[in-house]
Amino acid sequence: MPVAASAAPPAPWHEQNSRAPLTLKGIEFTDRCHGWAVGESDPAGGKALIVATRNGGRTWSKQNSGVTDTTLNRVDFVDNTHGWAVGEPFETGGDDSAPGPGTILRTTNGGATWTQQTNNVVPPQDATFANDIEGISFVSRQEGWLAVSSYASSNTGAILHTADGGATYTEQTIPDPATGVADVHFVNASSGWAVNDNGDILATTDGGTTWTVQLTGSGPSLEAVAFYNVLRGVAVGDSGTVWVTTDGGTNWNPGVIAAPSGTFDSTTLTDVTFPTSSRVAVSTEEVGDGHSKVLVSTNGGAVLNVQDSRTSATANSVAYPRGRNAGWITGEGGFIRSNDPNAGAGC
Length: 347
Prior knowledge:
The chain is mainly beta. It has strands at residues 14-16, 24-29, 35-41, 47-53, 61-68, 72-77, 83-87, 104-107, 115-116, 130-138, 144-151, 155-162, 170-172, 181-186, 192-196, 201-204, 212-215, 222-227, 233-237, 242-245, 253-254, 256-258, 269-273, 280-286, 292-297, 303-308, 315-319, 328-331, 336-338. The strands form seven sheets. Strands 22-26-25-24-23 form a five-stranded mixed sheet, with no helix packed on it. Strands 1-29-28-27 form a four-stranded antiparallel sheet, with no helix packed on it. A four-stranded antiparallel sheet has the order 2-3-4-5, with no helix packed on it.
């Protein structure tokens, strides 16, 4: 990426005690107080990690996921009580590429209890593949979509949809089902976008009844996509790739990272959030100095300034509550950090 001028001073990312002994993969906040993070199985009890906070991360506590020997990749809540967590198949004998259906969990009480929806996919996920659910987007207590990458002798991808809170999930038709789908994001029940391992950006205006290719990938895989509204969106991925749109995806243009050319050429951008009409935040792997970064934009992703995460571990996910200018990151080793100096105040 080329150099951009006038990078903003980096914001300090302060460590919080996640009480998570292993890697966390996804994080979600519904407001400045309520948050959840999910990740690998806890060796103390074998349960997949879910930790939660009600005070902006001043304290985190473990929740009982009820599932063992698996990794949860992402978590999404539509309010402070109703949420879903998704991830990999059960890792039989510790085999992290074991075949089977991807894990789906649901809570209706803020995570006090989680119930499985793994077997609610109709028809069932092909158990000869390792079905890895990598992305999730719910717009209400009833309606949501999941992004699936399936691995075996060949790779496939899918987008699953539910209109009944996960009682049933059905597969939608996508343009390239031979390619893993890495993420999906909807802003309402009609308008959504997805990204895949080919670097394609897919879009729908009818809830996924029909999906079309907006951008045909010719390079790195894309890992995550986020939209603020039906017009403004950002997609990110491998090799420091950033795509930005201001017209709903009719046109996608490269975003600029404010760093010396080549700094992020070998770096995966792992996640993206678009919490206000202008602010975008992106989490990354470690770069040349050994630290992961947070890329923050105040102009909708056109230019992203580099902030140091203050950790030598990959930042797997980033979450800013809707309408707020500060948030949280999480990643390898179970770290959680926030750039809000008043995190938890008034919760």
